[in-house]
Design goal:
The chain is α/β, with parallel strands linked by helices. It contains 3 helices and 8 strands; from the N terminus they run ββαββαβββαβ. 14% of the residues lie in helices and 30% in strands.
C-alpha cells in the first residue's frame, strides 16, 4: 500500500489524505463536493490548476499552454498531474477555485482518498 500524505486546501481549510500513487485531483474528488470540474485528467485543459504553497511533490508532464514555465517555477501546477511526496499545502486557483470554495464556509472533516 502506498504511503499517504496530508493535503491542506488553504482556500477552504479542508484536509485530506492522498496516497503517493494517486494525484491530488483524485483526492479532491473524494471530498464528495459536487461540481468540482475535472476536465481531461491528462494535463492538457488547465481546469484543475492549483498553487502549491508548501510541500514536496512529483509532477508529470503538463501542457505549456495551461501552465507556463514561470508558473511552474512558482509552484503552479495541474492537480491531475501532481503526486504527493510529503505533506502539501495548496491554494486552488483558476477555473476550479469557485467550485471548490462554494459551500465550504466551515472546514470539513479530514477525509481520505483510498482507505
Amino acid at each position: 500500500m502506498a504511503t499517504k500524505h496530508l493535503i491542506h486546501i488553504e482556500n477552504t481549510g479542508e484536509r485530506y489524505l492522498c496516497a503517493e500513487d494517486e494525484n491530488l485531483l483524485r483526492g479532491m474528488e473524494m471530498l464528495g463536493r459536487k461540481g468540482i470540474p475535472v476536465g481531461c485528467r491528462g494535463g492538457g485543459c488547465g481546469v484543475c490548476k492549483v498553487h502549491i504553497t508548501a510541500g514536496d511533490y512529483a509532477a508529470r508532464k503538463m501542457s505549456k499552454s495551461c501552465v507556463s514555465e514561470e508558473e511552474l517555477a512558482q509552484g503552479v501546477v495541474l492537480a491531475c498531474r501532481v503526486y504527493p511526496q510529503g505533506e502539501i499545502s495548496l491554494d486552488v486557483v483558476g477555473k476550479m477555485a469557485k467550485s471548490v470554495c462554494k459551500g465550504a464556509e466551515a472546514p470539513a472533516p479530514q477525509t481520505t482518498c483510498f482507505d
